[in-house]
C-alpha cells in the first residue's frame, strides 16, 4: 500500500479523466475534478492540480503520467484498503479531558472472525451510546475479544504528571497497552495497528523514543478511529466503562455524585474537597494540573 501525488496541468488532468472514463466513481470527492478506481488503485484529481494515486502499485500507475521521482511519494500515509475488514489492534483513551476521574487507555484486538459478533453487540462510536449501554457492552466485549486496559488513577496521575506532560503520558500508555496485548496475542500478529489519533504522528514518535520498549510493527494514526475499525470502537467502550466505574467508586467514597468534564460542577466539588481535606484529599480524585484547581482555591 502506497500513495503517490503528481502535480499536473489542467489539460493533463483532462487527458487523465478521458483515460479513466470507464472507471470514474460517482461519489464526488470535495475539491476534485474527478475520482476513479482502476485495478484497486484510487485516483483522485483535485482542482488544485494535485493528483493522488492510492493503493498497491499506485506508483507504477502514476508513472504513466509524470515523473514520480520528482513528486512526493509517501509510503503508508493512508490506511490499507478494506481496512474495516482486517484483523486490527486498535487503541483509544478516555478521561483525559475530565478533571475528576482516571485516565483510561485500552488496546483491543478485533480479529476478522470476531467482527460480525462485535457488530451484533452494537459496538460503534461510544459517543452515540448511553452510559448504561456502554457499561453493558463493555462486559460483553471483554468476554469476546482480547484487550489490555490501563487505568491511571488521579493519585498516580498527579505523581507522573510533572515529569510527563499529558501527551507524553498518553503516548507511554498507548505504547504500553499495545505492547502487552501484542505479547498476549503472539504468535498471532494483527494485520494492522491503529491508534485513535490524539497528537501528530511526529509528536508520537518523538515521545515514544523516550520509552525503553517500543512496538516494532507499523502504527497507523487517524482521528475518529472508531469509524475505521471496530477494534478502536471496542477499545473506546472498554475505556469509557472503566472511567465511569471509577467515577462511581469516587462518588461513593465522597458521598456525592462526582461530575465528569471540567466545568463549573467540577470547580464546586473541588472547592468542597479542599475545605474538607485540602490538596491532600483533592489529589486522590482530581487531575491537579487542570485550571479547575486554581479556580477552586479562589472559591474558598
Ligand atoms: Mn480518542
What's the short version?
The protein has helices at 10-19, 58-63, 115-121, 131-144, 154-160, 166-185, 201-208, 230-254, 264-282, 292-299, and strands at residues 2-7, 32-38, 41-46, 50-55, 72-75, 88-94, 103-110, 147-152, 192-196, 219-222. It is an alpha+beta fold and 300 residues long.
Percent of residues in beta strands? 15-25%
**Element-level helix/strand string:** EHEEEHEEEHHEHHEHEHHH
- Identify the CATH homologous superfamily of the largest domain: Ribonuclease H-like superfamily/Ribonuclease H
How many strands appear in the DSSP assignment?
10
Per DSSP, the total helix count is: 10
Helix content: 40-55%
Overall pLDDT, averaged?
93
Oligomer status: single chain
SS-derived structural category: alpha+beta
CATH class of the largest domain: Alpha Beta
Radius of gyration based on Cα positions:
23 Å
User: What is the architecture of the largest domain at the second tier of CATH?
Assistant: 2-Layer Sandwich
Query: Which shape, going by the Cα principal axes?
Result: elongated
Q: Ends: how far apart? A: 59 Å
CATH third-level topology of the largest domain: Nucleotidyltransferase, domain 5
Which strand order spans the largest sheet, edge to edge or round the barrel?
A: 2-3-4-1-5
Ligand identities: manganese (II) ion
- How can the largest sheet be summarized? 5 strands, antiparallel
Integer tally of domains = 3
Low-confidence sequence ranges: 69-76
Amino acid at each position: 500500500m502506497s500513495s503517490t501525488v503528481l502535480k499536473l496541468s489542467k489539460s493533463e488532468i483532462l487527458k487523465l479523466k478521458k483515460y479513466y472514463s470507464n472507471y470514474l466513481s460517482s461519489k464526488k470527492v470535495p475539491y476534485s475534478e474527478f475520482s476513479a478506481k482502476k485495478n484497486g488503485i484510487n485516483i483522485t484529481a483535485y482542482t488544485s492540480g494535485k493528483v493522488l494515486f492510492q493503493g498497491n502499485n499506485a506508483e507504477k500507475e502514476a508513472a504513466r503520467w509524470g515523473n514520480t521521482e520528482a513528486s512526493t511519494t509517501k509510503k503508508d500515509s493512508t490506511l490499507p484498503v478494506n481496512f474495516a475488514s482486517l484483523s486490527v489492534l486498535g487503541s483509544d483513551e478516555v478521561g483525559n479531558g475530565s478533571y475528576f476521574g482516571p485516565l483510561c487507555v485500552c488496546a483491543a484486538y478485533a480479529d476478522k472472525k470476531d467482527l460480525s459478533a462485535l457488530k451484533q453487540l452494537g459496538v460503534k462510536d461510544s459517543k452515540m451510546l448511553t452510559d448504561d449501554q456502554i457499561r453493558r457492552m463493555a462486559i460483553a466485549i471483554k468476554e469476546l475479544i482480547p484487550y489490555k486496559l490501563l487505568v491511571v488513577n488521579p493519585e498516580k496521575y498527579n505523581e507522573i504528571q510533572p515529569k510527563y506532560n499529558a501527551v507524553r503520558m498518553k503516548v507511554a500508555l498507548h505504547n504500553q497497552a499495545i505492547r502487552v496485548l501484542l505479547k498476549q496475542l503472539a504468535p498471532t500478529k494483527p494485520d494492522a495497528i491503529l491508534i485513535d489519533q490524539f497528537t501528530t504522528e511526529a509528536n508520537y514518535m518523538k515521545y515514544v523514543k523516550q520509552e525503553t520498549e517500543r512496538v516494532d510493527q507499523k502504527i497507523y494514526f487517524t482521528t475518529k478511529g472508531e469509524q475505521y475499525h471496530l477494534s478502536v470502537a471496542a477499545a473506546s467502550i472498554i475505556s469509557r466503562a472503566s472511567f465511569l466505574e471509577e467515577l462511581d467508586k469516587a462518588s461513593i467514597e465522597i458521598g456525592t455524585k462526582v461530575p465528569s468534564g471540567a466545568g463549573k460542577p467540577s470547580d464546586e466539588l473541588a472547592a468542597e474537597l479542599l475545605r474538607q481535606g485540602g490538596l491532600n484529599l483533592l489529589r486522590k480524585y482530581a487531575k491537579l494540573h487542570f485550571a479547575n484547581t486554581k479556580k477552586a482555591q479562589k472559591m474558598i
